[in-house]
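Record 1 of the preview.
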Amino acid sequence: MHSIKKSLFTLLVMSSPALFSMQLDLQEASAGPQETVNEYLTSCKDGETKKVLQLLKANQTLRLQSKKDKNGQTGLMLTAGNGHSDTLKEMLPLHMKAERQMQDAIKNQTAREWAEYHDREDCVNLLEENR
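->
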C-alpha cells in the first residue's frame, strides 16, 4: 500500500510541478503553533525584521513575545544578543514591559543583559531607552 501512495505522489510531482508547489504552499500556510513559534525565534535570531513583524502581527493570540526556546530565551533576547538593532527597534513597541524583563534559563539574564554580554552596544542602548 505504501509503495502505491509513493508512486502516485511521484506521478503527481513529475506530471504537475505547479500542483506540487501549491501543495507545499498549503503545508506552509497551515503550520501549527509550535512551528510558528520556532519560525519566529529563528527569524529573531537571524534578524529577519520583515518576517518577525509579520509573525508577531499575524499570530497575536499566540503571544509570540513570551515564547521561549529550549534555553529559555525569548525572541527579544535572541535578537538583542545577536546584535540585530534594526529588528529590535521594530520589535520593542510590540512588547510589554514584563516581556522585556523576562529572564532566560541559562544565566537568568534579560534581553538587555544578553546584549551587554555579547557587546551589542546599539541593542543595549535601545533596551535602556525602552525600559
